[in-house]
Design brief:
alpha/beta; Nucleotidyltransferase, domain 5; 5-stranded mixed β-sheet; globular; single chain; 11 helices; 3-stranded antiparallel β-sheet; about 35% helix
Length: about 300
């Protein structure tokens, strides 16, 4: 479908002032080609007065929010839409406290849960892998103190991949990892980088298997870790921006259990940093929100990393 989204706050307020308008937009994004009944697979249905799709084949009535992050919500969709507009409209994102205050939500816990559900929708199902020339390195984020290393109890270890586009940075991917072993590092690379691409790393032994599927470019640090920012400048620029974002927007209050989802949000924002209209980020978030399975609150607070059935 065409990219249909409001360009300004006035357009947003005028378009999504009612529950019916929000449901219609979700239906447009979820069933842009055709409705498919979750019970019988039928594609013919009619809309009830309650806004449900009534399958003409088996009679099942399906809500546009069923099977999405909006499932079983007790608050109106108009509030959800305001939350998504606010989160995508602010350049650096927002804390749960700010969302609670701006939207007038009854509790901090509700704002926190909503933000975590939205972060799960910031990873596009079936997204393309990085390609071309890609820098890869690990780094430590969060915590206090500690020297650079492949293992630590004070900070979380993450791995970052950044496309080289001229002297600049293209798309990025990042993930929290348990260690710097070859198995862990290679699994990430295989997941996020297209085979045949050039992968640029330092000389750590954990990257020894890269050459099996990629053109492997190695820069040896020879014990001078301070040179990493010069030899792999794009990755280290991304890590620097991530660190500032975690400290500035979230005041460093991110637990290791939930770090992956903050990395998803940072990646979502970074990869769309050149969008001319902030409304396009809103469009992408709503589009992805109807493709992600609902997440129970117990899984949210546990930081459960399991993804939806659509996630690659």
């Amino acid at each position: 479908m065409d990219e249909d989204y409001p360009r300004t706050l006035a357009e947003f307020e005028g378009r999504f002032a009612t529950e019916a308008a929000c449901r219609a937009y979700l239906a447009q994004l979820r069933w842009s080609r055709r409705f498919v009944c979750p019970r019988c697979g039928g594609t013919k249905a009619w809309l009830t007065r309650r806004g449900l799709q009534h399958c003409t084949g088996c009679g099942r009535q399906t809500s546009v929010t069923a099977g999405t992050i909006f499932q079983d919500t007790r608050l109106p969709l108009t509030t959800w839409f305001r939350a998504m507009w606010y989160v995508t409209g602010t350049k650096t994102g927002s804390s749960a406290l700010a969302v609670q205050q701006v939207l007038g939500l009854g509790s901090y816990q509700t704002a926190w849960a909503w933000l975590h559900k939205l972060r799960r929708a910031m990873v596009r199902p079936g997204r393309d892998r990085l390609s071309g020339n890609v820098e890869v390195d690990e780094s430590l984020v969060g915590g206090r103190g500690g020297a650079r290393g492949r293992g630590t109890v004070k900070k979380a270890l993450i791995i970052v991949a950044a496309e080289a586009v001229g002297h600049g940075i293209g798309r990025i991917r990042m993930r929290r990892i348990v260690d710097g072993s070859a198995e862990t590092l290679q699994a990430f690379i295989d997941d996020v980088i297209e085979p045949g691409s050039e992968v640029h790393t330092d000389g750590w032994d954990g990257y020894e298997k890269v050459k099996a599927r990629y053109r492997h470019r190695v820069s040896y640090l020879r014990g001078h870790h301070e040179l990493a920012s010069q030899l792999l400048p794009r990755v280290h620029r991304v890590v620097s921006l991530l660190t500032r974002w975690l400290l500035g927007t979230h005041h460093g209050a991110v637990s290791p259990a939930h770090l992956d989802y903050y990395l998803d949000e940072f990646t979502f924002r970074f990869n769309r940093r050149r969008s001319r209209h902030r409304g396009k980020l809103f469009f992408r978030l709503v589009q992805q929100a109807v493709a992600v399975d609902p997440v129970p609150y117990t899984r949210l607070i546990q930081g459960d990393r399991r993804r939806s059935r659509h996630h690659n």
